[in-house]
Amino acid sequence: MRRLLPHPVVSGCLFLLWLLLNGTVEPGPALVGLVVALLGGWALALLDPGQPRLRRPGLALRLAGTVLVDVARSNLAVTRIILGLNKDRQAGFIRIPLALREPQALAVLAGILTATPGSAWVEFDAEEGWLLLHVLDVGEEEEWVRLVQDRYAQPLMEIFA
Amino acid sequence: MMTQAAELPWFAAVPVALLLLAGAGLTLVGSLGMLRLKTFYERLHAPTLGASYGMSCILLASMIFFSVLQTRLVLHEIAIAILVLLTTPVTLMLVARAALHRDRLEQSQGVPASARRRPDGDAS
Question: CA nearest B47 in A: which residue?
Answer without folding.
Answer: A117
